[in-house]
């Protein structure tokens, strides 16, 4: 596989690893998202000044308001974090 294909496969596997621990395998609950962030992006949580910031992030991820984070919403998070970490993305 190419590097991009490998990256896509890792995104899918990472989502699938955490989704369904509590309920639907098609989405992440708030607790599952928190576990994913703690294990896969520990620096993000350490950088947060308080739990309210983390809660805001989780609420913002849930674009359709169903109290779950589906794969599309997860991909938006990863893309936004990637842009934030890459100096080619415009600052807004």
UniProtKB/TrEMBL annotation:
**Which keywords describe this protein according to UniProt?**
Calcium, Metal-binding, Repeat
Which GO molecular function entries does the Swiss-Prot or TrEMBL record give?
calcium ion binding; calcium-dependent protein binding; transition metal ion binding
An example Gene Ontology CC term for this record: cytoplasm
Pfam families per UniProt = S_100
One of the GO BP terms on file:
endothelial cell migration
- The record places domain EF-hand at 49-84
Q: Which CDD domains does the UniProt record give?
A: S-100
Protein name per UniProt: Protein S100-P-like
